Amino acid sequence: MGYKIQDSDIGILRNAGVSADDIKHCVKVAKKALEIAEQTKANVDMELVGRGALFHDLGKAKTHAIEHGKIGAELGKALGLPEEITAIMEKHIRGGLTEEEARELGLPIKNYTLKKLEERIVIYADRLVDIITDGIVEIKDESEAETRFEEILRTYPKYGKNEKTLNRYLGYHREIQGLMKK
Questions:
Q1: Which of 25, 46, 69, 82 could make an SS bond with 93 (beta carbons 3.0 to 4.6 A apart)?
Q2: Is the dihedral of CA 73, 55, 91, 101 positive or negative?
Q3: Domain around 29
């Protein structure tokens, strides 16, 4: 695997004021993202996946509102995190918004779409961990969240949000599952 979640990074989250529950979520997302990245057999920057996933919700130290991605990226920059990681933090909201969606949500108008496979793995892992841990969908084990991913997102608006977001997440699911089957 090559990359292991660092206690010092968890300390950064804690020192920034991220709650224990949110840190627990971030660690689960990082572990799931690393597991997925390993299974894809793709040429993936494992440190970017691990740290991007771990820090994706840094902005929740200040707010749980939709702008937590933007705020987290600003905090990350101030802490000296690499731009590739702060980009994941900023763009993870709803899986990478278009300029039009950003405008509709009152976020700074720019293109937040996900360009790198590492970014898409983090976002996919985040959605899976939500499904696995929220307790809304009854699943027997973690793998069921992956096998039922499309059905769950279509059935539970909390996960699919709206048509654009749903289609984006389904695209990531299909892409990443396709890479995992090789």
A1: 69
A2: negative
A3: 7-180
State the chain's maximal CA–CA distance in angstroms.
41
Instruction: Output the pTM of the full model.
Output: 0.95
Confidence class for position 1, pLDDT limits 50, 70, 90: low
- Neighbouring C-beta atoms of residue 82, cutoff 10 Å: 13
Identify whether 165 is part of a domain: yes
- Residue 47 within a domain: yes
Using CA atoms, how far apart are residues 110 and 81, in angstroms rounded to an integer?
21
Is residue 172 situated within a structural domain?
yes
Per-residue pLDDT tens for 2-30?
Answer: 799 999 999 999 999 999 999 999 999 99
Indicate whether 131 belongs to any domain.
yes
Look at phi and psi of residue 165 and say left if phi exceeds 0, alpha if psi is from -120 to 50, else beta: alpha
Number of domains the chain contains: 1
CATH number of the structural domain spanning residue 108? 1.10.3210
